[in-house]
Amino acid sequence: MKFTKIASPEQIERKWVLIDAEGKTFGRIMTDVATRLRGKDKPYFTPNIDCGDFVVIINAEKAIINGNGKTATKTYHRHTGYFGNVKSEKFTELLATNPEKVFKLAARGMLPKTKLGRAMLKKLKVYAGAEHPHSAQIAK
């Protein structure tokens, strides 16, 4: 009988992946990012261990948004903790002012809602422009 090997945290090799979002579809970028952050693209994927890579997204403000009126109708809601204080932001306003937050929120929705998911989300770095401080890690 053959068993699947379970990876231990010492065996995990993390790489730095650079993704240029210019001219690419937002949703397709995010599915690829979530897969890489989770580590599901690796042969030694283990669900209870953080196996993912570090992901750096540049040119976030130049990503393409598809969908039937999605940019006009999609809203993000958050609650301040006080009675009746639900704050809402439209997708287009948030994308114009803070594109990094839009990418982080999309990735958070695709990752596990546990401590492990929060640790995976910390490995995502998003920048609106082409400049980023992680060139030493990504250099080949």
UniProtKB/TrEMBL annotation:
Alphabetized UniProt keyword annotations: Ribonucleoprotein, Ribosomal protein
* Superkingdom of origin: Bacteria
Gene Ontology cellular-component terms for this entry are: cytosolic large ribosomal subunit
Q: Which GO terms describe its biological process?
A: negative regulation of translation; translation
Keyword Ribosomal protein, does the record have it? yes
Q: Which GO terms describe its molecular function?
A: mRNA binding; structural constituent of ribosome
Q: Which Pfam families match?
A: Ribosomal_L13 (PF00572)
Q: Which residues cross the membrane?
A: none
Family affiliation: Belongs to the universal ribosomal protein uL13 family.
Name the PANTHER family on file: LARGE RIBOSOMAL SUBUNIT PROTEIN UL13M, RIBOSOMAL PROTEIN L13
Provide the assembly information. Answer: Part of the 50S ribosomal subunit.
Please identify the protein, giving its name as recorded: Large ribosomal subunit protein uL13
State the organism named in the record.
Sulfuricurvum kujiense (strain ATCC BAA-921 / DSM 16994 / JCM 11577 / YK-1)
